[in-house]
Amino acid sequence: MDLPSLAATPRQQVLPYGRVVNFSAGPACMPIEVLLEAQQEFVNWRGCGMSIMEMSHRGRYYLKMMEETKGRLASLLHLPQSHHLLFMQGGATLQFAAQPLNMLRGLGDSADYVVTGTWSQYALKEASKFGKMRVAAENTANGFVDLPPVKEWTLNPNAAYVHYCDNETVHGLEFPRTPDLSKARATRIRLTSDMSSNFCSRPIDIDAHALIYAGAQKNMGPAGVTVVIARDDVLGKELATCPAMCSYGLCCKADSALNTPPVFAVYMVGLMSKYIQERGGLETWSRVCEAKAQRLYEVIDASENFYVCPVKKDARSRMNVRFLVAGASAERAEDGADAQGCSAVKENEALKKKFLREAEERGLYHLAGHRALGGCRASLYTGMPNEGVEALAAFMKEFAEENSEA
């Protein structure tokens, strides 16, 4: 029996192969070129007679694929010799626990956390189970609409590390550059970062970090694998209570195969690395990502508060463009100077629902904001084509014009 189509509404064709424009925050859309290459190799990888999904992770074909993936990603990142690439499981959520288990110098040791949104809050909560975690800076009072200046961070010089989230997916904030700890007079503290939602979207100052981790499911492939970049001094120093699956040292010694690795997800990281490298590498890709985000922010800022971005301009994310559908009668403090997140503007809930419904009719999917905040959010990861961004920009302008009296 034929299954019914899952399409609930008519769709305007924007992308080839009948694909919608998928603005999901993750798992996210991937480049069609990468999907087609994976499709071509799916049944019989390079003539070996097996799919990537079927081969032994101890066999020579998988080892060849892993070697290529690590080489491609290391080349893309300009990985220094002092750092090691690991492919782990459990997402960033597991890393919230793995980090203190590997980097605290004993039970009861302390580390500093910079809290700028949902995910850094969660990282702090998990780490607090293993030591005395301390908030070095936060922006909770203003509803996570800007970033605390590094010079105002109050760091403990004896902290095992200081952790920050480079891009807050839920709240739509992103550090414009790697925090310079010299501004906080704490150059000896090890810097660590959750880069799950902006990994490989711009060059990374790896030398400045002792640890970086990133779930692949936003910019670098499907869910299932977490890329970890660990410096030499982080390996082999885990607490005695650290589970084997959380140990960076054991994972490194086992070449990321302490247990059966997520073979297909690792393979896709390799294809994504190749895709970005062939298009100019991270320097070029950074400009591409910036241009896509700016296109939407320009529409929002020119809408005379019909659309409102609650995030201050110097903290806006290139990956997750957050906005409210406020309608023509909305009022808001200039540039969000006094904004308290989504509560700063009364969103027109009925108008937002209409916006989301009509967006889907145009083939623009997954634009609803996070359930905790409401509003709308357009995620612009590696796989988001320019055509998708232009289609959304055109729809937003048209919708605002047609509902100018709302």
The amount of beta strand, in percent, is 5-15%
Largest sheet, order of strands side by side? 2-10-9-8-5-3-4
CATH superfamily of the largest domain: Type I PLP-dependent aspartate aminotransferase-like (Major domain)
Which H/E pattern describes the elements?
EHHEHEHEEEEEEEHHHEEHEEH
Discrete helix count: 9
Shape: globular
Radius of gyration: 22 Å
Helix content: 25-40%
Largest sheet: 7 strands, mixed
Q: Give the rounded overall mean pLDDT.
A: 92
Give me the secondary-structure category: alpha/beta
Total number of distinct structural domains: 2
CATH topology of the largest domain: Aspartate Aminotransferase, domain 2
CATH architecture of the largest domain: 3-Layer(aba) Sandwich
List its salient traits.
single chain, 406 residues, alpha/beta, Aspartate Aminotransferase, domain 1, Aspartate Aminotransferase, domain 2, 2 domains, 3-stranded antiparallel sheet, 9 helices
Please describe the topology of this protein.
Layout: E1 21-22, H1 32-42, H2 60-77, E2 83-88, H3 91-103, E3 110-115, H4 118-127, E4 132-138, E5 162-165, E6 167-168, E7 173-174, E8 191-194, E9 211-215, E10 226-231, H5 248-253, H6 263-278, H7 281-301, E11 307-308, E12 320-325, H8 349-361, E13 364-365, E14 376-379, H9 386-402
Parallel strand pairs: 1-13, 3-4, 3-5, 5-8, 8-9
Antiparallel strand pairs: 2-10, 6-7, 9-10, 11-12, 12-14
Helix pairs in contact: 1-6, 2-6, 3-4, 7-9
